[in-house]
Amino acid sequence: MLDWIKQFSGKPDHPLRDAQAAQELIAGLPEGVSLENLEQLSHWVDSVKEAPGFSCDGRLAVVRLLDDAGARNAAPLFGQFFAKVHQQDREARNIWDALCLYWARLAEAYARCAADFEHGEKGAKNVEAEMPLVLARSLRAASQRFKLRHLRYLGIETKAWAPLYRLYAFAELKELDNQAVVAYPREVHTTVRAELQKSLLLCLAAPHELSPIQLELAFRILTRFAISAEWSRVPGADCNFGFNLVGGGPPALVLAEEAPGPSKRFIGGGQALVKLAELRLLCEKNMLSDELRFGKEFSPAQIITVIKHLQLYLGAAPPRRRYARTKAAADLKVVHGLKPICQRATKIELGSGVALGEDMSLKEKTSNIMKLVAEEVESTPETWKQLDQSEWGMGAEIPTGLGKWAEPGKLCGVQPQGEKAWWVGIVRRIDADTGLCCGIRIFSKHPVSVWLRVLGAGEHQADNWASSTGSFSFDYMRAIMLPDALKSHEHPVTILENKVYVPGQMCEVMMGEHSRLIKLVEFLEEGEDYVRAAFEWQHAGKN
């Protein structure tokens, strides 16, 4: 009898049967932000998604209330996780698990509301105007989960793309895909298409080659500019990536012979890349306004580094592997950090009688000028397992308990088995899907460690300032010259300590009988403790 009465009562047999009941339960949660609150809200979201008897508008009203409450917990908890992203401790892992589950369930709950509307369930007409919001929020929640997986270098499961494509296909069918909507209060407008494009572009931008802080920055940049990306039903020069709404799977670079099809869609950087170029120029001129900073925690150098990465991978000719890999099974000694690498690379000591020629070759000199105090070599090398190699790269497996520092962008020194010299490179990618493996890009097999005396730039050179003030205080920094590295715009490349990069800065290479000056001419990228830059040699009388 009770079941028969409930059937005609108009409300589901559920604790959160309507908006009022949901508000009462949410109000009963403990005050403040906690993992327990998020887990409870996550459970309710899943329960409401699955429960029968909800009208279309009734389910949506409850899901939106749970979403609002979840956001008050999810955002601060993500901040806690991100603050410990390098520690990989149990607390961070528990937060990561809870956030992944919450955002997956939230995406599915909004998708269920869209399905109710599509099937014409009771109350569907009441939410027709809200469908762009429903679809955008579902795709937003999915993109948050995708970002979390990228932050742990797990990649995106192939099957995870299909629900996103189904939502977008429905949006296209109802002509809602490009309708402007404000997904959440105090945000700029977005569209269903832009929300999908954000996930597609981040996937195409080689997120496994970005450090966690770079990845978070890339996500924020794409959140702002994905709406300007190119979109088409046919491939073209501006739409050089594609995916299949029916076949599923991640987007990929379009082959030259790729043909259009009813379910195929094509995307490209388009105006988004143009706007990124403008933003990069502002950064390089140090003219970036606060509202364009993406957060006070990001420096202009970090923004430039990430924009250059996005321009490279989302451009017309994204990188492809240029050198064939061959299998290798050998031990590989690894250290990380600029100072330990400098201590192991070939060193030109002050007064050693050796100098670096303009062609980056080592030349014997006869005069001494000064000696450096001997340093105690820091850091004990770790031993990894080399898996493969190419001319300028190698793959390695990181044994359990080692490489806790390893992430894309980390500077490292490597000594392959059988080699006497140490090479210098960078962890370029991380793959944690099966064990912990990484790819290392080699910058130089013959790095040379030197000291630079910073002289300043132009009229602000330190020697001019010293002459006028009577002070002879100079700044010194370590540098690694890369004799065999690929040049940038015909300029040789060096790795410097991560101090403020100043375009046009003059430095004296501390070696040999006669001082040699270099001028920094191009910023290439910034890492945790280094800057990679191009320079040019300065001849006598040249400023």
Folded structure, characterized:
The chain is an alpha+beta fold. It folds into 4 domains: 2-229; 271-312, no CATH class; 326-444, Thrombin, subunit H (Beta Barrel), CATH 2.40.10; 448-538, Pnp Oxidase, Chain A. Helices cover 36% and strands 21% of the residues. It contains 13 helices and 19 strands. The strands form 4 sheets. It has a 6-stranded antiparallel beta barrel with strand order 5-9-10-13-12-11. α5 (90-118) runs antiparallel to α6, α6 (131-151) packs antiparallel against α7 (161-173) and α9 crosses α11 (300-313). The N and C termini lie far apart (94 Å).
Mind telling me the C-alpha Rg? Answer: 28 Å
User: What structural class do you assign from the helix and strand content?
Assistant: alpha+beta
Helix percentage range: 25-40%
N-to-C terminal Cα separation, in Å?
A: 94 Å
Number of H/I helices: 13
Strand order across the biggest sheet? 5-9-10-13-12-11
How many individual β-strands? 19
Key features of this structure:
4 domains; 6-stranded antiparallel β-barrel; alpha+beta; Thrombin, subunit H; 13 helices; disordered N terminus; 543 residues; 19 strands
